[in-house]
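step 4 of 6: structure.
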Amino acid sequence: MHSSGKTLNGSEIFIECLRRENVDYIFGYPGGSLLKVYETLYDVKDIVHILVRHEQGATHMAEGYARATGKPGVVLVTSGPGATNTVTGIANAYMDSSPMVVFTGQVPSTLIGNDAFQEADIVGITRPITKHNFLVKDVKELAMTIRKAFYLATTGRPGPVLVDMPKDILNASCVMDWPETVEIRGFKPTLKCHINQVEKAAQKIAHAKRPLFYIGGGVISAEASEELRALAIQQNIPVTMTLQGLGAFPGNHPLSMGMLGMHGTYWANQAVNKCDLLIAVGARFDDRVTGKVDTFAPQAYKIHNDIDPTNVDKNIQVDLPVVGDAKNFLAALLDVMPGTKENRDPWLAEINAWREQCPLSYSSEDNSLRTEFVIEEVSKQTKGNAVVVTDVGQHQMWTSQFYTFLNPRSIITSGGLGTMGYGLPAAIGAAFGIKDRPVVLFCGDGGFMMNIQELVTAVHHKIPIKIFLINNSFLGMVRQWQELFHQEKYSFTDLGNSNPDFVKVAEAFGCKALMAENPDGAKEAIKEALAWNDGPILVDFRVVKKDMVFPMVPAGGSISDMLLARLNPKTMV
Amino acid sequence: MKHIISVLVENKFGSLNQVAAMFSARGFNLESISIGETEDREISRMTIVTRGDDQIISQVLKQLNRLVDTIKVIDLTRQPHVERELLLMTLKLTKTQQHEIFELINVFKGKVVDIKQKSITIEVIGSPDKINTTIDIFRVYGIKELARSGAVAIHRGE
Ligand SMILES: Cc1ncc(C[n+]2csc(CCOP(=O)(O)OP(=O)(O)O)c2C)c(N)n1
Ligand SMILES: [Mg+2]
């Protein structure tokens, strides 16, 4: 234990602990139970507090920051409504395994349980959506608790941790003891893979004729892209990625198959269907990936590397589980791979034939603007180098298909929870963390309204994000399901006559805004937006209204159920 | 099949809640759960009785292990162990049945803990199966109220 020797109050201890955890930003919103902390913050210069406009915004900002940088995002909110407003953002970070520490103010210890003003049992509420959470009961425990919270959030499978701090604890004083190391009896994640399992995996890989890598976000959080690239190229093995795994392997490499699953590429899904060896790394066999589990990769011997043992054999029984960190797994594989390998050229030729048979394509009739074009154009103009943030819906899936991700930590998107309203704050958070690459946001006209208040935060801090609003006047993804599976009953998904004028709205917030409604106009607008660095800029892309995302494997379906295009072509406008 | 799982957890606020919440969030069956301090006051032992096929039980064990406050998880089902449950039960007492009731209490090695004019309260200790049988047998005499502790279990010593 390192004792500072100084007597500090709880609020000062809180700030001092954040300093020692190398926190540079706090995304927060004040309130009654946090007055002492905000009093302390007033004079703090080395940690920047960003005032959000809704606590949900703070959580998504913190997550965007975390996913872009790999460092934990930090949230500070008051008790009661401040705390309950963070629930969606915490659940989102939990589902996508993002490191985040959320600090909530709480009513004074003596009032807990009394239905006090602005009391909510946030520890109880967030128990199933946090990796762990704490209620601090003594100021002497505050430093240790904060240390544990950061340790838990960032060690093993990352995730959100919540620390609830009653008002009296923040006012009470003690000598601060800063523990240099943390020891938690019940938390000992397995990082190093068992060498026997790795050797078995290497043998299987060496002898497979039709192997396939199935790569998830775990490879990105483990910073294992280099090892993946080396191994895939050395072994000549094609790579398909989940939504969160995109960028782990360069999308322009001939071995890249793009995304698999519900809206994955035809050839990636065919490859899954026909492979004789599936090597899943840092991926969790989510139902949006597998569809019907009985028919998922039916011919494959399945190797599954995951840092979280609960992911193994959860949705699908695998043949060879390897628990451990993805970087450790891939590096260990590189060490033990035998020199010889099967000839995979016939397998790659087969995949390329599928690719040619059903490429990702779209056509623009009558000069109308399509989302696919916008995203492809942004991909070209940014040379695949942007940090791309999305909201949830059709535009999100098109982003996965038409933006060519070249590097890890390049897509920031709500995968597990599918939270509309995530995009704008996540993009702002990402831009606080990353200054040397453009941060672009693709956002639907529905989801943009869900956290639009954060535009103020972006304007105030002159955050140069490019907000590419994909305005199709519909809750497009729901509309798509209604057309395909619900007798074209477009129940409450048409926003056409209720959407605001987004350009005017943005301008009222003090945000520069443009509009584009045809391909040439879009090209110009994208160029202008990428050149604009004086704060955020929004482009309202008036895209065709009734476009649909294909291919599509219907929920719970098999590869053989894959839809490749509209059955009865009709107008999209 | 039925499994009996022993879990050592940090003896602190919220540990029991964590476990119970995990069972309900993941849709696992929870037949009984009991908790108490161990020889080390910082550690509590939970005994959990659950049901499921091998795949479900393997998930249950992994999910229990994953909770930060759990220190050790042991599936006692296929290991030598002792399993006990306490039953407290109040029965109607009538002159005509008195004799039979006392006889049965002896058969089940029960104890009378309270006796009134029209009722008798007994305790029985045994495996959950024995407790089930006890309840079935006594049902005909009119059970007024009963309480079960849930199973507690421990490894057999060496
Ligand atoms: C908070 C929330 N509410 C509802 C949904 C269900 N939902 C999924 S996609 C979608 C439509 C999104 O519409 P828009 O933002 O315009 O994007 P588009 O699909 O048109 O690209 C809806 C309502 C959700 N994912 N999140
Ligand atoms: Mg829309």
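step 5 of 6: annotate
 - Residues A 393, 444-446, 472, 474-476 surround magnesium ion (ligand 2) (CB under 6 Å).
 - Residues 2 and 51 of chain B are 4 Å apart (CA to CA).
step 6 of 6: archive
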